[in-house]
Design brief:
The structure holds 3 protein chains of 3 kinds.
Chain A (H helix, E strand, L loop, with lengths): L2 H12 L6 H20 L2 H17 L10 H19 L4 H6 L1 H4 L2 H12 L4 H10 L2 H12 L4 H8 L3 H25 L1
Helix pairs in contact in A: 2-3, 2-4, 3-4, 4-10, 7-8, 9-11, 10-11
Chain B lengths: L1 H25 L3 H11 L3 H12 L5 H16 L5 H12 L4 H25 L5 H12 L4 H11 L4 H16 L4 H13 L10 H10 L4 H13 L6 H5 L10 E2 L3
Helix pairs in contact in B: 2-3, 2-4, 3-4, 3-5, 4-6, 5-6, 6-7, 6-8, 7-9, 8-9, 9-10, 10-12
Chain C lengths: L1 H18 L10 H7 L8 H10 L8 H30 L4 E8 L8 E5 L12 E3 L4 E8 L2 E9 L3 E3 L6 E4 L5 E7 L8
Antiparallel strand pairs in C: 1-4, 2-5, 3-4, 5-6, 5-8, 7-8
Helix pairs in contact in C: 3-4
The chains are: A mainly alpha, B mainly alpha, C alpha+beta.
Chain lengths: ~190, ~250, ~190
């Protein structure tokens, strides 16, 4: 969505008309819902958390800095919503998110196995990405899917720019390795 | 003979030195002393607490004055009062005899005096933040030499990172985590410029890992590995093989 | 050479696959569901002014109009600064963390239990715990600033009890052991 148009929507909302906000929700609901689904793996909970993200963003809209992109700002809020949820549900987000074995459910392993047997095409990336350690996965998604700048990734993930670069290069390396592995299997 | 004479003289001088303040204070009633303390900036809550001890017959006027002496001294020397006022409140609530509270207050005063001297003579400046970290650390039994070493080694580092390291020296020292290990962690953190503010509370990882029977050396090695990789403090838990919830917003209570 | 080309091709495949990775479709009626929860905002005078000031405007002034307009602008800026202060402060305020103090007492032997500590100036009346019959525990939920906090339980107004679950304790210099609670600033982020 065009940034000027987004700025116009935000202005209208701040002036007291919530309706234009729905355009922003429609624009980004898929991305935010997907983020939640990658983390909680329960569609109903993911929808609740995505809703909470938009509600929180709406409540804090006054703090949104003009001239910045709306989506990275919204994404930071959504990540915090996810973190809060993990904490409340008794699972430490950082520990949970950081441990790939925690994320690795039997059905995922099955997917991975199937993926190995599939042709080496673009869709396999999606399968691999799902099984990656979340910190690398999210960095890669932000960079290549959502076109975030390194600075934006660093801001959103609350790490340094060099840390963001490191995660992306590591993430790419992991994907390359997995591709090679699949090629060898074949 | 000379040796005896010299010993007597020393004792006499010490006696005069020790008696002088109490002689001076003897002429001053609690009310007047309390007023002076308040005028200087000691909180009226703290002063009222001391006065109420006398009203409730829990201490004498003279002892009440002794309680206010270290508070007034801290105030006059422009050292932070919160720490002393907090200890006073703690002692009063716990119904500790006044003389023990006086001892605890004097110990705090000494801790903060040391802190300020160290900071002023090494960094040339003592900010409220650095003063509080070193002062509280010393009061809570972190060896003074640890702070001396840290400050002299890293005085030239950027203020933000310096403060993170200082907090680590203090908190880890309070937890009895060997300074040598803390120093190795800090050396790595500085080298890879990865000492972000989250590391201040690395002590929480230490306590959680110790609960699982992990040795301090292993914890330190894990921290060094993570720091070398520009990692976050919570990654140390993963490095140590944790999967459970051991690091909430706080550790200690649930 | 061919190895290098293969690597480039592989990277290009990975990147293009990532960029075309599909999003999940949000549940039907999601945006309407979000919108139902939102209340219209009531912008302050300052907010209206700010939005006006930074939005594109097209105006014509005569010199005689400029003086009163500028006077109003200055007045509004002053008003704005006064109004902004609290929100600026709330941005900077320390992040508090929720903490739950728990003391087991299966048969409710104690009549009252409080948490006394450096965070409540050791005042028992400020942090009185409640008894949870189902769990057989005294509980207090509190929000604390980052730092190391010392505390003890005060049972029936007289008995001092250290927290058996605390990860660390320290002599209080008065013959008891204070329990220590480390609260971080919530800066730890992994994702």
């Amino acid at each position: 969505m065009d940034e000027t148009y987004e700025a116009e929507i935000i202005k209208e909302v701040l002036l007291g008309d919530p309706q234009p906000f729905e355009a922003l929700v429609r624009e980004y609901q898929g991305a935010i819902y997907s983020l939640m689904l990658r983390n909680v793996r329960d569609s109903s909970m993911a929808a609740d958390l995505a809703q909470e993200s938009f509600t929180r963003a709406y409540a804090r809209l006054e703090t949104f800095k003009k001239g910045k992109r709306f989506f990275p700002w919204l994404y930071s809020i959504a990540l915090n919503v996810a973190r809060d949820h993990m904490r409340k549900s008794g699972r430490d987000f950082h520990v949970f998110m950081d441990n790939p074995t925690d994320m690795d459910r039997p059905e995922d392993r099955k997917n991975e196995q199937e993926a190995m047997e599939n042709h080496l095409d673009g869709n396999v990336v999606f399968e691999f990405v799902q099984t990656m350690a979340p910190k690398y996965r999210e960095a890669l998604i932000l960079r290549y899917k959502h076109d975030f700048s390194m600075q934006e990734i660093a801001n959103v993930l609350d790490i340094s720019v060099s840390g963001a670069k490191m995660r992306i290069s590591r993430g790419l390396e992991m994907l390359r390795d997995q591709f090679k592995e699949v090629s060898n299997v074949r | 003979m000379n040796r005896f004479y010299s010993a007597y003289l020393t004792v006499a001088l010490w006696a005069v030195c020790l008696l002088m303040p109490s002689l001076a204070l003897a002429g001053m009633g609690l009310a007047e002393f309390a007023e002076r303390a308040k005028t200087c900036g000691v909180s009226s809550d703290a002063v009222a607490q001391v006065q109420s001890l006398v009203t409730n017959d829990r201490t004498t006027e003279e002892q009440a004055v002794s309680l206010l002496v270290p508070l007034l001294a801290a105030c006059v020397e422009q050292l932070p009062l919160e720490s002393l006022e907090d200890k006073l409140a703690e002692g009063v609530t716990k119904q500790v005899p006044s003389q023990f509270i006086v001892g605890a207050l004097e110990q705090r005063l000494d801790g903060y005096r040391f802190a300020r001297e160290l900071l002023l003579t090494t960094l040339g400046v003592s900010t409220p933040e650095t003063l509080a970290v070193v002062g509280e650390g010393v009061v809570k039994d972190v060896p003074k030499v640890d702070f001396e070493d840290y400050v002299s080694t890293y005085a030239h580092k950027p203020a933000e990172q310096f403060q993170v390291g200082l907090v680590m020296v203090s908190l880890q020292g309070q937890a009895g985590f060997a300074y040598d290990l803390t120093k190795q962690i800090l050396a790595q953190g500085y080298e890879s410029e990865s000492l972000s503010s989250g590391w201040e509370y690395f002590v929480r990882v230490v306590l959680a890992a110790r609960k699982q029977g992990i040795a301090d050396k292993t914890i330190a090695d894990a921290a060094i590995t993570v720091l070398a990789d520009d990692g976050l403090v919570s990654e140390v838990m993963t490095e140590l093989g944790f999967t459970g919830r051991d690091l909430g917003g706080a550790s200690g209570a649930e | 050479m061919s190895g290098k080309n293969d690597a480039r091709l592989l990277d290009a495949t990975i990147k293009s696959s990532l960029s075309s990775m599909p999003d999940e479709t949000a549940p039907e009626g999601f945006s309407a569901r979000v919108m139902r929860e939102l209340q219209p905002k009531k912008p302050s005078v300052w907010m209206r002014f700010k939005l006006w000031l930074f939005g594109p405007q097209s105006m014509t002034f005569t010199p005689i109009q400029v003086v009163p307009v500028m006077t109003c602008v200055v007045a509004l800026i002053v008003l704005g600064i006064v109004q902004m202060k609290p929100s600026a402060m709330s941005e900077d305020t320390v992040r508090l963390s929720s903490v739950r103090f728990v003391l087991n007492d299966m048969n409710m032997n104690a009549k009252t239990v409080s948490v006394i500590g450096s965070f409540n100036s050791w005042k028992a009346e400020r942090s009185v715990m409640y008894y949870n019959n189902d769990e057989g525990t005294w509980i207090l939920e509190a929000t604390l600033p980052p730092g190391d906090h010392e505390y003890m339980f005060l049972v029936d107004g007289v008995k001092l009890v250290s927290d058996p679950q605390a990860s660390m304790s320290r002599d209080d210099g008065f013959g008891n052991k204070n329990s220590i609670l480390f609260v971080n600033g919530g800066h730890e982020q992994i994702l």
